[in-house]
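Reopening this ticket.

The earlier resolution said the output was attached, but the attachment link was broken on my side. Pasting everything inline this time so it's all in one place.
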Amino acid sequence: MEQRAIRYEWTTVTSALMDGTRVAEAVRVWAENAGDGGRWLGGWTSENGELGRVWVLRSFPDEETLLAARHAMRLGGHPLSGTAEVTGIDVASFAGLPMMPKVEVGTLGPAYEIRDYTLVPGGLPGTIQGWRRALPERDPIDPVTVVMYALDGPERIVHVWPFQSLDERVRIRRELYAAGTWPPPGGPERIAHATSTIAWPVPGSPLS
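Inline output:
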């Protein structure tokens, strides 16, 4: 039950392309010292797609702690809002899929794929069922770091996958598709919009 109570915060920080190093350092300082009950799990910077992005994953022991931190952030301003190089901050609240264990940090990459799916209306329950069926067969081959669904806004899931290299990612995905192990049954039909981004851990990220 403890792991089911865990809530996640997914923050997207944007900046000008050449300011990424300074923003990544500001992210590290904030995430390590937030003092709001959140635990820093990982931070990544985009390699392809929309550049000038840093994603930050934090966990909270329960929804009450998460909401208290969000409320304080709204009233007092996000700590990164005073960073000159930061041009945008988006914070969203998530819960892990019911069958997912809590995130364990460590050196799992260094290449990560971040997939962000907006689902069709009503698509979340069937998506969870599909993942519940397919993940036990895929996870021993290609363990997922986190799969989580948004607690507000459009129906959405975000999942993060570690790989030792980009070549490994291509090889594993080809083999899984050829074997019919992936995607989850009914999964693609419930996706309205999808993005896939290759990202690298920022310096100091607990997930590296």
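Reporter confirms the inline version is readable. The chain is about 30% helix and 35% strand. The two ends are 28 Å apart (CA to CA).
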